[in-house]
Specification:
Blueprint: E1 2-6, H1 17-20, E2 27-28, E3 31-32, H2 33-39, E4 47-52, H3 56-65, E5 72-77, H4 83-90, E6 99-103, E7 106-108, H5 113-122, E8 126-132, E9 140-145, E10 148-154, E11 165-173, H6 177-180, H7 189-200, E12 202-206, E13 211-213, H8 217-231, E14 235-237, E15 242-243, E16 246-248, E17 251-253, E18 258-259, E19 264-266, E20 269-270, E21 275-276, E22 281-283, E23 286-287, E24 292-293, E25 296-298, E26 301-302
Parallel strand pairs: 1-4, 1-6, 4-5, 8-12, 14-17, 15-18, 16-19, 17-20, 18-21, 19-22, 20-23, 21-24, 22-25, 23-26
Antiparallel strand pairs: 2-3, 6-11, 7-13, 8-11, 9-10
Helix pairs in contact: 4-7
The protein binds guanosine-5'-diphosphate-alpha-D-mannose and magnesium ion.
The site of magnesium ion has 4 residues, from loops.
């Protein structure tokens, strides 16, 4: 079985970090988001297809240096991003039957084999994972009856949302779904394909545990905190890091980071090779790789030295 991971978005809400690193490579508990997804895949997934576009070269380099064990990995590039549906159509030649698909920015406790088992059991066209939230207006929202999705509305106004159950961004799809996606143009799964699939039998599965769409600073930090809590750790640090200062929960520190004696850090992600000088303070922030911090960074995405800023 194949799994497609959508990993080609611009990550606009995580700029300027995503000017340097594509969103799927942002580390959550020192492991790139996309690797959290790959590691959660059931054994029967033999091939992982990454649908990439923006910053393909950076993703390719990382995956060549850190190949996932025991699975074939294929990168398929869109010259220009084709949207979530166009990206899936664009990898059609790599798919041989029913398959799994994932938004590449979701960190969750979902066991995807539940989706594939239900696809067979219910003879559905698609099974999508669902998560309950207070404010569904930033997501795709479903109206359900007896487990079947009756309506799908992407990012409705709060007062127009049919429920507070949202698409959690992980799907088991029957092979036939590929025929519903028009080729060669930008297609949104959420706005164009799910509404058609609803007619053909789209089953929804709510799950519990944890879930975050790590698309903003707050939610990347929330995902980081959730994973660290799950590991029973307040702090993790990679090889070669030297932590002399005061680091409080929940913080992930990459490799070869130096935190000087009177520096303070809390609830943050500090990427590889950073230096936090004496007197610096980092709170609720994400610090990109190889940065030198001398002052206060509070509630920021801090990243310098990028080039090739996209036009959009
Ligand atoms: N290859 C490729 N090409 N990937 C893309 C493209 C594209 O043109 N556009 C977006 N992606 C990838 C993003 O990188 C991300 O991993 C995923 O598709 C979803 O895109 P987002 O931009 O993060 O969408 P969203 O968070 O606003 O909404 C989506 O996710 C929600 C749950 O997290 C929708 O699927 C909602 O329905 C859903 O509730
Ligand atoms: Mg997202």
């Amino acid at each position: 079985m194949e799994a497609v991971i959508l990993a080609g978005g611009y990550g606009t809400r995580l700029r300027p970090l995503t000017y340097k690193i594509p969103k799927p490579l942002i580390p959550i508990a020192n492991k790139p988001m996309v690797m959290h997804i790959i590691d959660s895949l059931p054994q029967k997934v033999e091939k992982v297809i990454l649908a990439v576009s923006y910053k393909r070269d950076v993703l390719q380099k990382y995956l060549e240096e850190n190949p996932p064990e025991g699975r074939e990995l294929v990168l398929v590039e869109e010259k220009e991003p084709l949207g979530t549906g166009g990206a899936i159509k664009n990898v059609e030649r790599e798919i041989s039957g029913d398959f799994l698909a994932f938004n590449g920015d979701v960190i969750s406790s979902l066991d995807p084999s539940v989706l594939t088992n239900t696809l067979i059991e219910k003879k559905a066209g698609a099974v999508i994972s669902l998560w309950r939230v207070n404010d569904p207006s930033h997501y795709g929202v479903v109206e359900m009856r007896d487990g079947w999705i009756r309506r799908f509305v992407e990012k409705p106004r709060l007062n127009e949302a049919p429920s507070n159950l949202i698409s959690a961004g992980a799907y088991a799809l029957s092979y036939d779904v590929l025929d519903l996606i028009p080729p060669g143009r930008v297609v949104s799964l959420e706005r164009e394909i799910w509404p058609i699939l609803v007619e053909k039998g789209m089953y929804g599965m709510e799950f519990r545990g944890y879930w975050t769409d790590a698309g903003t600073r707050e939610r990347v930090l929330e995902a980081n905190s959730l994973i660290l809590q799950g590991m029973g750790k307040k702090l993790i640090a990679g090889n070669g890091s030297e932590i002399l200062g005061n680091v409080t929960e929940h913080t992930s520190i990459g490799k070869n980071v130096i935190i000087d004696g009177s520096a303070e850090v809390s609830n943050s992600i500090i990427m590889d090779g950073c230096i936090l000088e004496n007197g610096s303070k980092v709170v609720d922030s994400i610090i990109g790789p190889e940065e030198r911090i001398a002052g206060r960074v509070i509630g920021e995405i801090f990243c310098t030295g990028y080039s090739n800023v996209p036009k959009n």
